[in-house]
Amino acid sequence: MASSPVDPLTVYAAHSFENDSSYQAGLSTLYSSGAIDGLSGETKEDFLRRSRVFYFNQAYGCNISESDAKQLEEDRTYAPSTPEGAVTQDQEVSPSTPESPRTLTFAELQSLVEQGKTDEIPNNKHIPNIINEAAPSQSDAPQRKKPWEFPLQLE
């Protein structure tokens, strides 16, 4: 039995980029590098589409164009056949990294230190005021020779 060829755009449309861990890892790298930060709505959407097309072409060995993917996504957006609970193109894909804590101002930081609430300062690690109680280890390296302890070599 001969198998019928599969249209790459159909596979692209069916691919779940939201649940693809490899794509999400690459997307979080793009977010953390700041490549997406200054982009406006439509420019950001085009950038994300290019990333999806690039990933899809690399992963599946296809060669779909960005314009074909854009047309397909626009057709899917206008089609009312989106199942309940499914992610649509209007929803933004967010990176899998959690939000970083708010940066405190100097006055807020000063008041927390003065009140003794250092545990409420973000990224503040408590270092105990004790010395390591384990016995020190013995060195296995031989003691280094002094310059006058080397044998005299005349050439």
From TrEMBL:
<feature type="domain" description="Peroxisomal membrane protein PEX14-like KPWE">
    <location>
        <begin position="101"/>
        <end position="149"/>
    </location>
</feature>
<feature type="region of interest" description="Disordered">
    <location>
        <begin position="72"/>
        <end position="101"/>
    </location>
</feature>
<protein>
    <submittedName>
        <fullName>Uncharacterized protein</fullName>
    </submittedName>
</protein>
<dbReference type="Pfam" id="PF17733">
    <property type="entry name" value="KPWE_dom"/>
</dbReference>
<dbReference type="InterPro" id="IPR040554">
    <property type="entry name" value="KPWE_PEX14_dom"/>
</dbReference>
<feature type="domain" description="PEX14-like helix-turn-helix">
    <location>
        <begin position="12"/>
        <end position="74"/>
    </location>
</feature>
<dbReference type="InterPro" id="IPR058841">
    <property type="entry name" value="HTH_76"/>
</dbReference>
<feature type="region of interest" description="Disordered">
    <location>
        <begin position="116"/>
        <end position="155"/>
    </location>
</feature>
<dbReference type="Pfam" id="PF25871">
    <property type="entry name" value="HTH_76"/>
</dbReference>
<feature type="compositionally biased region" description="Polar residues">
    <location>
        <begin position="88"/>
        <end position="101"/>
    </location>
</feature>
